[in-house]
Amino acid sequence: MTPAAARDDQTVTPLVRSAAAWSWRLLVILAAAVVTFLLLERFAVVFVPVALAMLATALLLPAVDYLDRAGAARGGAVAFVLVLGIAVFSGILAFVVNQFIEGAPDLVDQVERSADGTRDWLIHGPAHLRADQITSATDTAVNALREHQTQLTTGALSTAGTLVEILTGALLCLFTIIFFLLGGRNIWRFVTQIVPTENRHRVYEAGAAGFHSLAGYARATTLVALVDAVAIGSGLAIMGIPLALPLASLIFLGAFIPLVGALVTGFLAVIVALLAKGLIYAAITLGLIVAVMQLEAHVLQPLVMGRAVSIHPLGVVLGLTAGSVLAGVVGALLAVPTIAFFNSFIRVLIAQDPAARNAALKDEDGPLLDARADDADRPAVME
C-alpha cells in the first residue's frame, strides 16, 4: 500500500473498515453459494439420485455389516439386503395402490350418501337453500372443470415427459447404492486424495462423522415414521374410516419429511373421514393427528432423534422451508439429512484435537471410531 493510500485508509473509521472487510468476504461466500446452487440445479439428475443413495445407504448399511460380520460374502449381503429393501418399499406402494383401487367403490358410495345428506341439510336445514341454487353451483363447478380440461391434459402429458429422467435417476440411485454398500470407504478415501496431506486424515474423519450422523438420522426417522403410521392407522381403523391401512402406509412414507410430512399426508385421512363419515369423524381424525404430532414433537423427537442428530428444531424448520422453496418435495426430503451431515462434518473439521472431536460427537453408542489407514481393506462405507 502506498503512503497516500495508507493515509486515505486512516481517514476511514475502524468501524467502516471492518464492515467493508466483512462485506466483501460475505459477498465472495454468497457468490460461491450461488454458483454451487446453480451447478447442483444444472446437474440435479445426478446430484439428487446420489444424495438419495447416500441416505438409503445409511439406512441399509447396518444390516449389510451385520451379515458381513456373520460370515456372509459382502456381495451376497449387499444383494440380499438391497433386494429385500426394494421388495419392502415396492410392497408398500403396491399395497397402497391396490387398497385404494379396491376401496374406491365403497368410498364413492359413502361419498354419494354423504353428498345426498348434505344436499338435504342445505335445503331443509338452517341454510334453506333452493334446489336450483345447489344445481347451479354444481353445474358451474363441472363447467369450470371442462373448460380447463385442455390445460389439465397438457400438464399430465408434460409430467409424463419426465418419465425418462425418473427412470434414469432411479437406475443411477440403484447403482450408486450398490457401490456405496460394497466399498464406500475406499471411494471416500480416494476422494480425499485431492486434499493436502496434512489435512487429509481430518477431512476423512469429518466425512466419517457426517455419515455417522446421517445413519443415526435414517434409523431415527424410520422409527418415528413407524410410530406415526401405527398410531394414526390404529385410530382410523377403530373409527371405521375407509382405507385405513393404505392411509397409514402413506403417513409412514410421508413421515420421512420431518415435522410436516406426516401432518400433510394425515390431512388425506381427514378428507376421507369427512367425505365418508361426516364432520364429526373428520374433527376426531384431525384431533388424532394433532395428538400424534404432539407426541412426536415432545417425546419421540427428543428421545430418538435428539440422541441421533443434534440439530435445533429451528434449524430443522428453516432447513425444511429453504429446501422446499429451492427444490420442492425433494428439497424438503434432503434438507434435514444434509444439515445433519454437514453439522457433524464441520464440527469435526474445526475441532482442535481428537479428544475435542469425540467429545463433540459422542452419543449413546460411544465415541466415533478413528479412521485409521490400516483399515483400508474394510469395505464398509464410513465409520
Automatic annotation (TrEMBL):
One of its GO terms (biological process) is transmembrane transport. The chain crosses the membrane at residues 21-40, 46-64, 76-97, 162-182, 223-245, 251-272, 279-297, 317-342. Keywords: Cell membrane, Membrane, Transmembrane, Transmembrane helix, Transport. The keyword Membrane applies. It is a multi-pass membrane protein. It is found in: Cell membrane. One of its GO terms (cellular component) is plasma membrane. It holds the Pfam family AI-2E_transport. Belongs to the autoinducer-2 exporter (AI-2E) (TC 2.A.86) family. This is AI-2E family transporter. It comes from Mycolicibacterium madagascariense.
